[in-house]
Amino acid sequence: MQLKYITCSDPRENVSYINLYFLSMLSPKVEFGIQAHPSAMSEGMPRNQWFNYILKRKNDRFNLALHINYQWCDDICSGIIPPEILQWLNTYKLSNQGPMIKRIQLNIGDRTVKTLDVPKLAKVIQSFPDREFIFPYNVRTKDVIEKLNNIGAKFSLLYDNSYGRGICPNTWDGPVYENHVQGYAGGLYGENIEQNLKKISEKLPKNYETWIDAEGKLMTPGTRHMDFNRARNYILGALEFEQTR
After folding, report:
1. Strand runs (DSSP E) across 69-155, as ranges?
2. Which of 10, 187, 205, 235 has an alpha carbon within 20 to 30 A of 120's alpha carbon?
């Protein structure tokens, strides 16, 4: 098993650019997953301004992903790309002209499942061939995922049986599909990352390239503020696991 990304999810406008920079310097595998939805990131809002500032810095060190929720997720899954997201995807490039936002995670919930249009969503995916689209895989989404797979859509899966609640499972499952890369999330943080990576690695082929994603356990307790030291310990723990393999 090899880690392609070590994802720190949900840094917000209270996290300084310099702290993100220092975290990115720990490894080129570090990724920041920005939670995007209209109630927090519409034009003119603080998080929108903060994210635009990060994008305008055009730092090649940064691996950026959009984790899209609520109405924006519903829109994309119906074939409509909100203008803010379209601008972010089309405007900002790395020095090699590759996209700054490399990955797009659509956090499909119960409401989205009911309105999702599989052919239209597949067309959205096809319109961005240089991006990786990610879907959470669980009981609620598996039927939709199967339909996307059956029509040949290109995507990756995020295994999280806790439905984003940050609960670490006793056991982890292997890949659902041979042709779709699968990442892992659920209650991961610095103190348990090595033992859980060991469990995950036992479910995967030797050279399987995957990623991990942590969010809630990286926050300062009682807040939604990403804690620099918690994020750092999580990243270093994952790197330590890789070095000892």
Report:
1. 101-106, 132-137
2. 10
Q: Which of 53-62, 71-80, 125-134, 167-176 has the lowest mean pLDDT?
A: 167-176
**Rg of the chain in Å (alpha carbons):** 17
Q: Tell me the pLDDT tens digit for each residue of 39-86.
A: 999 999 999 999 999 999 999 999 999 999 999 999 999 999 999 999
pLDDT (mean) for 19-40: 97
Q: Whole-structure pTM over 0.90, yes or no?
A: yes
Alpha-carbon distances of 24 from 29, 59, 236, rounded to whole Å: 8, 10, 11
Helix orientation angle between 83-91 and 46-57, rounded to the nearest 10 degrees: 10
E strand or H helix that includes residue 4: strand 2-9
Cα–Cα distance, 220 to 68 (Å, whole number): 23
The 3-class secondary structure across 123-138, one letter per residue, is: HHHHCCCCCEEEEEEC
DSSP helix/strand/coil, 112:
helix
| Cα dihedral sign, 212-226-90-104 | positive
